[in-house]
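Duplicate of #3305? Posting structure anyway:
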């Protein structure tokens, strides 16, 4: 039975017009109201039950929706917090909950209460403490500061620099220390320099004496200089002859590089003192700050040779003069 005036056709609803235009009824995918309801129901599904990919996951979601719509899925039970909330208290706890909370506080032991109060005091002190700014040091500056903590060194030739030059010295009783050498080494040692001897002893390779003879001469030299307060960190000896393969024979810088690795030296702030051109070349090859030629031993002959490479070296009279120049020109040396 149609309502309205007789002879007047009832107006079609928008839903009927859309259905008539397409010749079919609207499904849940085409009706926006049905689609919004389905989306709302999907939002209420727990995230643990959602699966974005896979047909099995989609089927599980649709089955859960149907069970929820049919009323076969039980509602989520209320939590203890919901039980403690009074129905007309606007989110405030009811009196039993407050009593239960105060009772739980009183049931603590004295040790637990003391620990809790101590933590509260620590939090208050931390909140009242002014914020401390961390000191940020640029990396280049930090590397420079670290490099300053590494020691510097003085590398010395033996014959003609520390003791008088004698051809192939191998007898300890023939050791004669040059004047002022002990006091100069003591000043360098006191200024923070490490002391090393780097010497070529080709007489061993030629078969004229042995390494034991070299060790005895070095022991006599170290004992005599120790009376003046000078002490060597290490003595490097190259026993090979000039025509024999050698790892550390000067002008090779290998002994200086070994000392850098063993003692953590700064070669760029170290010095080499000798009386021959091979001594100066050894220092240049290692990258020391300055190679110093002394006029003792063969030094005067090397100076008179007029070698153009001497322009890069410092020429002084003896070891005390070299020590005085080093201490004068090194920051923090004195």
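Output from current build:
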């Amino acid at each position: 039975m149609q309502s309205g005036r007789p002879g007047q056709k009832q107006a079609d609803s928008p839903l009927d017009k859309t259905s008539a235009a397409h010749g079919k009824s609207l499904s849940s995918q085409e009706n926006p109201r049905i689609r919004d309801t389905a989306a709302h129901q999907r939002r209420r599904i727990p995230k643990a039950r959602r699966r974005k990919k896979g047909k099995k996951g989609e089927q599980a979601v649709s089955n859960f929706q149907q069970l929820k719509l049919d009323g076969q899925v039980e509602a989520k039970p209320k939590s203890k917090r919901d039980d403690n909330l009074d129905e007309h208290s606007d989110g405030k706890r009811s009196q039993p909950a407050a009593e239960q909370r105060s009772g739980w506080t009183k049931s603590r032991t004295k040790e637990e209460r003391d620990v809790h109060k101590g933590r509260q005091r620590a939090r208050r002190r931390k909140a009242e403490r002014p914020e401390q700014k961390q000191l940020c040091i640029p990396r280049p500056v930090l590397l420079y500061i670290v490099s300053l903590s590494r020691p510097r060194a003085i590398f010395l030739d033996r014959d003609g620099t520390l003791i008088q030059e004698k051809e192939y010295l191998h007898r300890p009783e023939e050791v004669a220390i040059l004047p002022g050498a002990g006091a100069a080494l003591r000043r360098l040692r006191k200024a923070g320099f490490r002391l090393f001897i780097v010497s070529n002893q080709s007489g061993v390779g030629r078969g004229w004496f042995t390494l034991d003879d070299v060790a005895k001469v070095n022991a006599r030299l170290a004992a005599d200089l120790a009376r003046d307060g000078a002490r060597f960190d290490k003595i490097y000896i190259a026993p090979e002859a000039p025509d024999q393969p050698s790892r550390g024979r000067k002008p090779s810088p290998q002994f200086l590089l070994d000392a850098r690795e063993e003692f953590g030296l700064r070669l760029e702030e170290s010095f080499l003192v000798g009386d021959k051109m091979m001594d100066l070349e050894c220092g240049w090859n290692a990258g020391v700050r300055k190679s110093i030629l002394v006029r003792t031993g063969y030094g005067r002959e090397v100076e008179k040779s007029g070698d153009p490479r001497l322009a890069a070296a410092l020429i002084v009279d003896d070891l005390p003069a070299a020590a005085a120049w080093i201490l004068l020109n090194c920051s923090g040396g004195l």
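Confirmed duplicate; merging threads. The domain at 149-329 is CATH 3.40.50.1000 (Rossmann fold). Strands lie at 152-156, 193-200, 234-238, 271-274, 290-294, 314-316.
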